[in-house]
């Protein structure tokens, strides 16, 4: 796959150097792994619309949804090699390229709501975290929301004991691994594009995700139960290849900045509703039983996951966890 990515990167470089380069539009390939009809999918399409409008067609944005171009790990490599220019991976997916700090967003129950999240992403801590990406050949442009995660499985998940021995698909985050280990489950890292089939064939028994991802990937059709836990958050960092971004004419970059700002406001303004609507559609389908927890059951889940904070302190950094909790507390 690395060979393929390299080949694509050199074709892109050749295209830029050709004689028609002066007139040809600047192409931004934006690859992502979710459906178009999701918070990220809609924000990406909005960015395309605005970027092309504000640059009067000097920039063309090609959006490739649903892992059609690359899966999770490959897309980050492709961005670093310049085969694509823009991505929006979840906070949980930067560990494999050596940026572990975004995994702080994965800590169980660390964010009570989206307003609190905004304090971090719109503040100095959010800006500092984006800067960490520079050394990896990427520029962090924005934070996009999805929403809060829920648990699903073929077993009814109510108490922490129900999680024992259950195989869960996880994103590539050590915090998420620690979270499921704390529950006595068996976590398994897997690309998003492979989850449906893994659930269908029983390679894993369950997964955690937002309602919009569960619905648009049809996971509810292959999971008997989904429990309303809101135990974690999925959000995205919009990243662009740094060399590409720095090499853009300044006037174009500033129009793209404007388009990104507006697409971010648009996407983040509707993500909560997207997830509410998806939950309603899942309920209406009648394909999965939605389980709600009593306050006591919710408290038991929180307690069971508490040890995760200590388990990952060295990896994520205790000072970062403290700062994050101060901002959100
Ligand atoms: C997942 O892998 O479950 C999510 O990060 C997918 C996404 O991009 O929302």
What's the short version?
This protein is 46% helix and 18% strand. It has helices at 2-17, 39-54, 72-81, 114-121, 124-131, 174-182, 195-201, 211-216, 242-246, 250-285, 295-305, 307-311, 313-316, 318-328; strands at residues 26-31, 59-64, 86-87, 138-148, 150-153, 167-170, 186-189, 206-209, 225-228, 233-241, 289-292.
How would you sum up this structure, described in words?
- By secondary structure, the protein is of the alpha/beta class.
- It is built from 14 helices and eleven strands.
- Strands 7-6-8-5-9-11 form a six-stranded mixed β-sheet, with helices on both faces.
- Helix 1 (2-17) packs parallel to helix 3.
- It is globular.
- It binds (2S)-2-hydroxybutanedioic acid.
- The site of (2S)-2-hydroxybutanedioic acid (LMR) has 10 residues, from loops.
- Residues 33-34, 40, 90, 146, 171, 192, 209, 213, 234 line the site of (2S)-2-hydroxybutanedioic acid (LMR).
- Residues 1-24 form the signal peptide.
- InterPro entries: DctP_fam, TRAP_DctP, TRAP_DctP_sf.
- Belongs to the bacterial solute-binding protein 7 family.
- This is C4-dicarboxylate-binding protein DctP.
- Keywords: Signal, Transport.
- Low-confidence segments, ≥5 residues, pLDDT <50? none
Q: Give the SSE order as H and E letters.
A: HEHEHEHHEEEHEHEHEEHHEHHHH
Trace the largest sheet across and list its strands.
7-6-8-5-9-11
Structure classification: alpha/beta
Query: What is the number of helical segments per DSSP (H or I, 4+ residues)?
Result: 14
Report mean pLDDT, rounded to a whole number.
Answer: 94
Largest sheet: 6 strands, mixed
Bound compounds, each kind once, are: (2S)-2-hydroxybutanedioic acid
Cα-to-Cα separation, first versus last residue: 43 Å
Assembly annotation = single chain
Shape: globular
Radius of gyration: 20 Å
How many beta strands in the DSSP annotation? 11
Tell me what portion of residues adopts beta-strand conformation.
Answer: 15-25%
Helix content: 40-55%
């Amino acid at each position: 796959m690395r060979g393929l990515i390299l080949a694509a990167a050199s074709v892109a470089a050749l295209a830029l150097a050709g004689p028609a380069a002066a007139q040809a539009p600047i192409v931004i390939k934006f690859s992502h792994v979710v459906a178009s009809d999701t918070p990220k999918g809609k924000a990406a399409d909005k960015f395309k619309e605005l970027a092309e409008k504000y640059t009067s067609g000097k920039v063309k944005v090609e959006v490739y949804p649903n892992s059609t171009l690359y899966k999770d790990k490959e897309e980050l490599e492709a961005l670093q090699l310049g085969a694509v220019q823009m991505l929006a991976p979840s906070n949980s997916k930067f560990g494999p390229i050596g940026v572990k700090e975004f995994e702080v967003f994965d800590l169980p129950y660390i964010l009570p709501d989206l307003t609190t999240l905004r304090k971090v992403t719109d503040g100095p801590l959010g800006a500092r975290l984006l800067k960490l990406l520079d050394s990896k050949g990427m520029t962090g442009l924005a934070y996009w929301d999805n929403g809060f995660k829920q648990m699903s499985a073929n077993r009814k998940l109510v108490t922490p004991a129900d999680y024992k021995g259950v195989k869960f698909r996880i994103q590539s985050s050590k915090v998420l691994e620690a979270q499921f280990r704390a529950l006595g489950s068996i976590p398994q890292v897997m690309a998003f594009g492979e989850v449906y089939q893994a659930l269908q064939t029983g390679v894993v028994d369950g997964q955690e995700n937002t309602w919009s991802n569960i619905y648009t990937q049809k996971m509810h059709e292959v999971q008997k139960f989904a429990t309303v836990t809101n135990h974690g958050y999925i959000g995205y960092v919009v990243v662009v290849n740094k060399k590409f971004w720095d090499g853009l004419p300044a006037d174009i970059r500033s129009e793209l900045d404007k388009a990104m700002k507006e697409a971010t406001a648009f996407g983040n303004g509707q993500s909560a509703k997207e997830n509410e609507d998806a939950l309603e559609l899942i309920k209406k389908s009648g394909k999965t039983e939605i389980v709600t927890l009593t306050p006591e059951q919710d408290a038991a889940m929180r307690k069971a996951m508490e040890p995760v904070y200590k388990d990952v302190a060295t990896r994520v950094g205790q000072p970062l966890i403290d700062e994050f909790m101060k901002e959100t507390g």
